[in-house]
Amino acid sequence: MAGSETIQYKVREHRLPVSDFWRLLLSAFVFGLLVACTSTVTCPANLDDPRPVFLLDHGRHASLVITSAEGELFRYGYGDWRYYAETDLRLRTGVRALLWPTPAGLARQSYGDIEPETEVLVNAVGVPIDEPHKLMVSGAAVDALRRDLDRTFERGAEQEYLVNRSFDFNFVPHPRDYWFWYSSNHMVVDWLDALDCESRGFTALTMHYRVETD
């Protein structure tokens, strides 16, 4: 961020082995059959300073792309550190992450000043997207959320900074543990709440999102 000190990150890089790619797809398919739930998102209308953000539905989880005041797009995500950041996709790792509070990671990726349109963003993001949702929210709320997320990210980067090519994300430790009752969907819902958007549905089992307008 502008004016901030340069931090020397301890960087690691992780890439999903090809042999595990099909395991990931199979896990997504089975999990989708078990808990195909939908959350409804409603954002305010008639804003004085509307700015686009994008809720990206990845099937089992979601991520959020926000537009900065300068027109740059930043994508954020949250998940279990071992399963998501380190791409440890073993069944026991997934079960452990759901049943017990486990260390979590905050993820961030920058896409520069590309055009803030759905098709352009989908082509830029390096992971599959089941359905993208473009939302118009308050620019002031976006700026406040981004400041909060980036402060958390910079603090985490002082501990560890992991580059994950498979999920198109850079991960740092997050102070809040991950588990079934506070998953990536819970975190995204909290981010949407900070943008004055309302979410309805059983967040723990959310698999898809539907967007409505006030």
List keywords for this structure.
214 residues, alpha+beta, eight-stranded mixed β-sheet, three-stranded mixed β-sheet, 6 helices, 11 strands, 35% strand
What does the model show?
The strands form two sheets. The chain has an eight-stranded mixed sheet with strand order 1-8-9-6-5-4-3-7. A three-stranded mixed sheet has the order 10-2-11, with helices on one face. It has one domain (20-213). It is 32% helix and 35% strand. By secondary structure, the protein is an alpha+beta fold. It has six helices and eleven strands. The protein has helices at 18-34, 81-85, 91-99, 118-124, 139-157, 184-194, and strands spanning 11-14, 37-43, 50-57, 62-67, 73-80, 102-110, 131-138, 161-164, 169-178, 198-200, 206-213. The longest helix is centred in the last third of the chain and has 19 residues, at 139-157. The radius of gyration is 17 Å and the shape is globular.
Helix and strand run: EHEEEEHHEHEHEEHEE
For the largest sheet, list the strands in their spatial order.
1-8-9-6-5-4-3-7
Query: Count the helices. How many?
Result: 6
- Portion of residues within helices: 25-40%
The poorly predicted ranges are: 29-35
Number of strands: 11
Secondary-structure-based class equals: alpha+beta
Radius of gyration, in angstroms, nearest whole number:
17 Å
The major beta sheet can be summarized as:
8 strands, mixed
In percent, how much strand structure appears in the residues? 35-45%
